[in-house]
């Protein structure tokens, strides 16, 4: 069932959804409101998350973050839809996956800028690391832009851990497994660091360290 949330004028809200399995949110933003939303999947369960955001007033700010650390045969899907109905707002989406084993990831990010949404700024980014040959990632960034005075960009990459960086760290005395953990933690750091609640941020960081150590 979809949960509807309305942010009133100039309201600020941060939501951290830890290990959601079926998050289904529809968020309406009034003028000047600020939204920061995190979807963090670390517990090994399948997930199918759907987030819809509509900026209905001028000067809105929207930040959507996603992080998934998968293994086994786990499947994590994140689908986002951000609609700039009014101009003068901004949005940023950053979703990152690290996939191990035979796990599967899927990200579809829909970004719509309406004809009247002039002077809008929007970014959409998806970055993924595959740790095993059996892991798979599908990414579908989609932009629909009907206004001409906008700044909009999107990007998606899927690859493996940087072997040159791993070799460099080993040459300086860091054991291979520790170097691997450090590189993976660095890959996830910008999503984790964007959580303003210090206790929540540190708890997630510790969970990641335990997961990578296993």
Question: What does this protein look like?
Answer:
By secondary structure, the protein is of the alpha/beta class. It has one domain (3-159). It contains 3 helices and 12 strands; from the N terminus they run ββββββββββββααα. Strands 1-3-5-7-9-11 form a 6-stranded parallel β-sheet, with no helix packed on it. A 6-stranded parallel β-sheet has the order 2-4-6-8-10-12, with helices on one face. α1 crosses α2 (176-193) and α2 packs antiparallel against α3 (198-213). The model has no long low-confidence stretch (mean pLDDT 95).
Topology:
Blueprint: E1 3-7, E2 12-18, E3 24-29, E4 34-41, E5 47-55, E6 61-70, E7 75-84, E8 90-99, E9 104-113, E10 120-130, E11 136-145, E12 150-159, H1 163-171, H2 176-193, H3 198-213
Parallel strand pairs: 1-3, 2-4, 3-5, 4-6, 5-7, 6-8, 7-9, 8-10, 9-11, 10-12
Helix pairs in contact: 1-2, 2-3
The share of residues in extended strands comes to: over 45%
Low-confidence runs of at least 5 consecutive residues: none
Radius of gyration equals: 18 Å
Q: How many individual domains?
A: 1
Provide the helix percentage.
10-25%
Q: What's this, in brief?
A:
With 214 residues, this protein is α/β, with parallel strands linked by helices. Helices cover 20% and strands 50% of the residues.
Looking at this protein, list some descriptive labels.
alpha/beta, 6-stranded parallel beta sheet, 3 helices, elongated
């Amino acid at each position: 069932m979809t949960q509807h949330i309305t942010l009133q004028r100039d309201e600020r809200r941060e939501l951290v959804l830890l290990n959601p399995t079926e998050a289904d949110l529809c968020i309406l933003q009034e003028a000047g409101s600020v939204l920061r939303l995190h979807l963090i999947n670390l517990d090994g369960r399948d997930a199918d998350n759907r987030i819809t955001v509509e900026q209905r007033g001028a000067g809105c700010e929207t930040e959507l973050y996603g992080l998934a650390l998968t293994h086994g045969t786990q499947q994590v899907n994140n689908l986002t839809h951000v609609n700039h109905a009014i101009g003068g707002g901004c949005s940023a989406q950053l979703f990152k996956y690290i996939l191990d084993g035979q796990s599967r990831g899927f990200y579809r990010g829909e970004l719509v800028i309406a004809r009247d949404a002039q002077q809008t700024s929007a970014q959409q980014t998806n970055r993924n690391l595959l740790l095993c040959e059996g892991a798979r990632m599908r990414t579908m960034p989609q932009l629909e832009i009907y206004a001409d005075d906008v700044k909009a960009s999107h990007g998606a990459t899927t690859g493996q851990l940087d072997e040159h960086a791993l070799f460099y760290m080993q040459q300086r005395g860091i054991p291979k497994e520790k170097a691997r953990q450090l590189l993976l933690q660095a890959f996830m750091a910008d999503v984790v660091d964007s959580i303003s609640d210090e206790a929540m941020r540190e708890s997630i960081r510790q969970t990641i360290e335990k997961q990578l150590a296993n």
